[in-house]
Amino acid sequence: MATDPRPVLAIVGPTASGKSELGLRVARQADGEIVNADALQVYRGLDVGTAKPTPEERREVPHHLIDVLDPEERFSAGEFARRGRQAIEEVRGRGRLPIVVGGSGFYLQALFEGLSPLPPSDPELRRELSRRAAEEGPEAVHAVLAAVDPATARRLAPADVQRVVRALEVAITTGRPLSRWIAERPAGEDPLPAVRVALTLPRTLLYDRIAARVARMLTQGWVEEVRDLLDRGVDPEAPAFQAIGYRQMVRFVREEWSLDEAVADTVRATRRFAKRQLTWFRNEADVHGLDPRQLSGGISEVLELVQSRS
Question: Does residue 226 carry a pLDDT above 50?
Fold first, then answer.
């Protein structure tokens, strides 16, 4: 794909840091459209627990890659990169600024740098590993991955079964961990120029915001949303329900946990995820840090960065 010389704007950072708010404000001021890079907002029906933009916000500012999959469907970084680049080119074709907003680091890497070539899959081994995860729990296969590829295990949460299984599949079939494959065959064959802005907050403040957001989602009907999805026949083991927060709420709705247990585990898991996101974006090159508490000044700063790279 021929790359457009104009940079894309990416607003990245950990969950609950204010990415969506900043993205909307910049889009209003810079005649932009938003390309979603949140791995859960792609799913229809997962609205409250993903902090999805409201219908009013989506009418005001066009959004892409939201509500494109059913909860039972799987989504890969490669498919996201393909769809994301297509959306970006369409936005550019309208003469508008593409603004990528999200915190899924691996998806963003795939979009902007391309993916490292990896060995082909082994369907039989993948089925066996998936069966083991289902029977023994995701922590069991994650522990195996930690033994053979600790670097990748640190990057992936146990609940991210699809990627944990793929990493194990690579290590078992090739005798080399996925982290080594990526290090020796880095991405970057078809880079997409971008100005990347990472929202940063002190960790204690970020953790407080996470707890407050979980509480707010409950008042907005998160439990009712999950109950409705289950009543409509969505499989409790569907890919969308393996996400942080949703898997806990499923356990509450199915009367396996109390609400207090589900909420506490959601907050803990989200904080751990945010910590991994902070580490990911801190290690990324050419990323401009911005404190979201200074949003009014931050918008001018972001627009100057885009103009300087155009």
Answer: yes
